[in-house]
Amino acid sequence: MRKMKSSLLVFLAILLGLVGCGSPAQPEGGGGTTTGADEVTINFMHLWPAGSSAQHNRIVESIISEYEENNPGVNINVDVLSNDQYKETMTVLASSRQLPDVGLTWAAGYMTPFIQGNMFTPLDDILEGGLGESFIPGTTEAFAANDTTYGLPLELNIAPIYYNKNIFAEYDLDVPETYEEFKNVVQTLQANGVIPITVGNREPWTGSMWYMYLADRFGGPETLTNAINRTGTFEDPALIQAAEEIQNLVDMNAFVRGFNGIGNEEAKGPFMNEQAAMYLMGTWELPNYTTNEDVPQEFRESIGFFKFPVVEGGAGDIDSFVGGPGVGLFVSENSQVKEQSKEFVRFFVERWGERAVTDAGVIPATRVETGELDLPDMYIEVLEELANASNITLYADVQMSAAVAQTHLDLIQSLYGGDITPEEFARRHEEALAAEQ
Amino acid sequence: MNRVMSNKFIISLYILPALLLILVLIYIPIVLTGYYGLMKWDGIGDMTFIGLDNYIRLLSDNQFWRSSYHSLLLAIFSTVSLLGYLTISLILATKIKGANFLRKIYLIPMLLSSVAIAQLWLKIYHPTNGLLNSILIAIGVNNPPAWLADRNLVLIAIFIAIIWQYAGFYILIYYAALKNIPESIIEAARIDGATPVQIAYRIKLPLISGVFKVTIILAIIGSLKYFDLIWIMTGGGPAGASEVIASYMYKNAFTMYNFGYGSAVGFYLLLFCLLGTWLIRKLTSTKDEIQY
């Protein structure tokens, strides 16, 4: 009996108490130290393990060793975590004021509590002197609050629809430019037993991107953003129509079976096995269709991408994208070695821009001269689309605060699952946003 | 020796290290959790004292009650499944062929971590290439359900995985208890002409009733605070259809940055578990245990 009680208590202690008392469980991390006159240690935490993000990891390693070579006496102490673990660790470390000197953060809504809690230090001073101009406009703004920049973005992504050219050719289909054509494509594929679209909506941010595109094409680039920042409303007819269209697509069996129960990685399966014809995903997937040697070349060559089709009579144009910067670097406000950390961050961003393109096939947030580089065609096409983009709408769940984002993601699952009507979908968003104020 | 042990000071000295550990690791966090529940706090910035607001708001939070209902369902389901485990143990404890082998089979899930078990069952339940649906399609079912995506089936699908996960644990407990019964009692019954079913029902079961009670409490408390498999397999989805109290607590505290509210959920969970334990003790208390 006593044993049971204590096992329950241990459970609670682990889940909640851990963060509460903090220090006994978290001896790691913390501000870097200055030992002696010149020896400096900068703690750096990132989320690209050598196993799952080999190319990213290698670039980080080489940038660090280059920096250490150029700056004798500076040691960069690296801590690597996987994506989900990283987010949790950030929360735990922040609550005990033990953030690493330099780390990675996501933009907008994710970083707001950290900024309000005075965890990140302003980085405006390192943007001066030319570095600021090297960023693609709009990317640093996503990491800013009250005109102060707290993070420097490393990546910029847009989300095109990837499609299998072989499947399209087999059923004599053209790349759709209007939504009507798109629905015809879906119907033809469906009638021939091919999965039209694969989506892993157990992670509803994937389903959210489809909704965001429809919202953009019906209502134009501002409608969704305005609804989130409260100058507009989710009960805007265009947004309700977008929700309705999602349910129409579900009714047409446009999406892979059981989409609400499979994750994004699993959802990739049918696309990579040529069972599904289309897959809407960020450009971080590009290496899989261009340079990744683990994917058969034949398959890589059969993949193309197209822009989300326009809706007739809708306000959105075809060059408007869903996307935004990925992670960015921050420097901790409580760091003992703030100046050295900032110097490192500046060096990192400069080097990253050059290396990300050639070594990892990642699109950096800084401008790239592609002229003299030998890059895969699809990569260059994406860069061109990016240059021509009329608008990039930041992912809805990143724009929202953490609590509203969770509501949004739950509602997206309900919408896809047919549990709620488009009107209720809009109303519940309104309620969640209103409760925030 | 007796002199030492009757010295109050020495006694407290011996107890002290363990007491301190329990205090620091268990009781203080509990009190802190209750205290954080009184705060509006995102877990990062400053706390604001808001009194009992979180606790009161929870009482009218539909998603919280829905999660509690799911946890309760799991508790009932786990308790009922104990009968299944017991039956298997009764069979394994008799001298049937291959009992040794079967016992090992049932124990295998205990050797796997929850993450591995979750991955395994994710593969089984996969809507298109999953083992389960492949079999269903092979025997002529046209439209097998997408188990984890279907809000009506997701709970039962996960419950089955949990039952499988814990089978070995409970069977081991029952098996050990059954093996403890002196052979002479069963021998005597057999000579008196009792059938195996009679022996099981009239002799073995009453003799292990104490163990059975303990397992009921284990199952119920374990179910109320159940978390890992559900979190990995569905994250509480689709749209909250498999949310339980612990996952709701976690979501609030760590993904929605509502640490105060999450703490309040955690405190309620503690109360539910204590209440559950107390109820079962009341319901199953008998005047005297049967001894052998």
From TrEMBL, chain B:
Record-linked Gene3D superfamilies: MetI-like (1.10.3720.10)
A UniProt-annotated Pfam family: BPD_transp_1
GO cellular component: plasma membrane
Compartments where found: Cell membrane
UniProt superkingdom: Bacteria
Ranges for domain ABC transmembrane type-1: 68-280
Membrane topology according to the record: Multi-pass membrane protein
Major localisation: membrane
One GO biological process term: transmembrane transport
Record carries keyword Transmembrane: yes
Annotated keywords: Cell membrane, Membrane, Transmembrane, Transmembrane helix, Transport
Transmembrane segments: 12-38, 72-93, 105-122, 153-177, 207-227, 259-280
InterPro entries xref list: ABC_transporter_permease, MetI-like, MetI-like_sf
PANTHER family reported in the protein's UniProt record: ABC TRANSPORTER PERMEASE PROTEIN (PTHR30193), INNER MEMBRANE ABC TRANSPORTER PERMEASE PROTEIN YCJO (PTHR30193:SF37)
Family from the record: Belongs to the binding-protein-dependent transport system permease family.
Record protein name field: Sugar ABC transporter permease
Organism in which the protein naturally occurs: Anaerobacillus alkaliphilus
